[in-house]
Amino acid sequence: MTRAEKEQAVAIWKARLEEAQLLILTDFQGLNVVQLNDFRRKLRQINAHYEVGKNNLLSLAAQRVGQEGLKPYLVGPTAALYTTEEPVAAAKAVRSFIRENPKLKLKAGLIGGKVINSGQVLQLASLPSREVLLGRLMGQLMSPVAGFIAVLCGTHRKLLGVLEAIKQKKEDRA
Fold first, then answer.
1. Rounded to an integer, what distance in angstroms lies between the CA atom of residue 122 and that of residue 23?
2. Which of 140, 36, 119, 22 is nearest to 79 (CA)?
3. Which of 31, 133, 149, 174 holds its CA 20 to 30 A away from the CA of 39?
4. What value does the mean pLDDT of the chain take?
5. What one-character DSSP code corresponds to residue 5?
6. Which tens digit of pLDDT belongs to each residue from 124-142?
7. What residue spans define the domains of the chain?
8. Tell me, what's the pLDDT at 49?
9. Which CATH class name applies to 3-127?
């Protein structure tokens, strides 16, 4: 690689680090091309990408965006999964692929500008999706409103019950 190509590669990785909602560094040693292409195909379905990178270029890019915490993980064969979409979906895809192909090893991750270890990446994968979390939040927010409406309706129901009982009592007398 010429110096200009290296600078261009560092600029590309720098942009990816800045835009990524989630970046996961992996050791892909022991996997064949067919397995890696299958993994990439699955990731494309969730708008995630998986690329092999040169450690020194990744290190320079990480340094330029202020993520020196990634440097200790940039040793040996390294490939990076990155996504600008749902981070949990990408983490789940990695966990699923690791179950099928245990040769893929997690090194570290980067989410929200914070470096996380492989265990935290797996914890992220155990979270429900964003849509499920938003649904639960909306349920919690709507719960007091629904309770208030039930209380208001209950008063009307009691009044109708009393009026019905009075009507029934008058009909029995007649």
1. 13
2. 36
3. 133
4. 88
5. H
6. 888 777 778 788 888 888 7
7. 3-127, 129-174
8. 93
9. alpha beta
